[in-house]
Amino acid sequence: MRPFPWLVGALVGVISTASGEGKVPYDFFPLSYWVGPPANEQTPERYAEIAECHFTLVFNGDPDLAHRFGLKCLVADPRVSAAVRNPGAETDPGLDAAVAQWAQHPAFFGFYLKDEPHSRDFPALAHVNQYLLAKAPHSVPYINLFPTYATQEQLGNETYEEHVEQFLTTVKPRVLSYDHYALLKDHDRPDFFLNLEIIRRASLRHGVPFWYILLSTPHGGYRDPSEGDLRWQVYSALAYGAKGLLYFTYWTPAHANYRHGILSPTGERTEHYWMVQRINAEVKHLGPTLLRLTSRAVYHTPPIPEGASAQPEKALVRKVTGGELVLGELTDEAGQQYLFLVNRNHDEPVQVQVTLQPNLAAVSRLSKLTGEHQPLALASSEDGPTFTLQLAPGDGTLLLVR
């Protein structure tokens, strides 16, 4: 499914984790990508360009250059790949050598293990994952899972839920990553929110943060994303509690019908570069808050998408008029309550009136330009305090409610 051989390798609500809340094992918000600059473009200028686009994590790049520009690096090491293919006594010394070379590097974040594994790969991945964590406890071994629309033959399991659960219980990863490309040429995949629901529940149940890979490069039957399309993918995932985001792709692969990525096949910035730069800058400002929040509930205004949930009776929001929203409820370690509101329409802006429960008396919005709180004016109504909010296509906003 990936373009380069060197990259191979529905109830919602309050869900308690099996092992506490699950501490996020990193101190910055990971913003990364698939398909970085090719080998002949591993230059300071290219890494400055990555940093300027407000990415925080380089996938399969040069750790020295990453460190120079304040970035972390996921390392794709052939010794790790060999161990995934043949785990055990023959390849463990290679893992030791990889850890010895990279684990103390200031840019090192973790090792790439595998993309979209079949369930038969899980025992090998479990061995390598646990071996690396024993040798480098601060690292994040990285594995990415299939989306809901994968076949049983691809998964090796009868259901997607079974696949995700088996992965988590067998491999015990530090993050739960998956891809889902919802932007088909003439419509959105109907199971986009179902996939988020399944991953969110599993993430909370096992106390493991989840990452989402979104579509930024048209190819095959996928459309060229607008900024609203990009925002819709990013902010929907954040409303569900995502703790990391990756774009597919950064550099446009120069084969098949891949086109118009963040950088072109020859390395020029496309309009997607500037869209992603704006969105990443916003997420970086929200990141310190997002990392310490736990998802408590996610619900939707009508019409309810496939696999999603309607607004429960005791939700923080009593009523929404003027648009279709995703609403995520989150709390911090002190029990403070947050709302993530997302415009589910990625083509048109909305102006919505939101009515809260009567016991809530104050709302502030976290600025996506500074990360600071900005109080919102509340009006009184017979149903409860209300406020009005404008949201661009696919856009989201994070609110603290008291």
Keywords:
402 residues; alpha/beta; TIM Barrel; Immunoglobulin-like; 2 domains; 8-stranded parallel sheet; 6-stranded antiparallel sheet; 10 helices; 22% strand; globular
Topology diagram in text:
Layout: E1 31-34, H1 44-52, E2 57-59, H2 63-68, E3 72-75, H3 78-85, H4 92-102, E4 108-115, H5 122-135, E5 142-145, H6 152-155, H7 160-171, E6 176-179, H8 192-206, E7 210-215, H9 227-239, E8 245-248, H10 271-290, E9 294-300, E10 317-321, E11 325-331, E12 337-343, E13 350-356, E14 363-366, E15 373-376, E16 386-391, E17 396-401
Parallel strand pairs: 1-8, 2-3, 3-4, 4-5, 5-6, 6-7, 7-8
Antiparallel strand pairs: 9-11, 10-13, 11-12, 12-17, 13-16, 14-15, 14-17
Helix pairs in contact: 3-4, 3-5, 4-5, 5-7, 7-8, 9-10
